[in-house]
Amino acid sequence: MILKGRMILKDWATVTTPPSPDPPDAGRPSREELDRLVRDRIANWRDQPRGLACAVIAAFMILTTAAFVFAVVAVVGAMG
User: Fold this and answer.
1) What is the mean pLDDT of the chain?
2) By residue range, what is the domain housing residue 53?
3) Model's pTM, two decimal places?
4) Is 27 part of any domain?
């Protein structure tokens, strides 16, 4: 449909995306199969939440302890 010499959006969509001759699911795995393949190949972050949580907590404890030690050393150094 042309309106005053211009093509409307519907016409542009049909011009730029011709219909595929293949059916939508020709030779393609189902969504369930793709999900299973991804789960099998790539570990989900939820698979090891305890390990990640332990690492974060340990890093926080180490950094907090180091900051406290440096603060005590700075205060003692400033007093003396």
Assistant:
1) 77
2) 49-80
3) 0.39
4) no
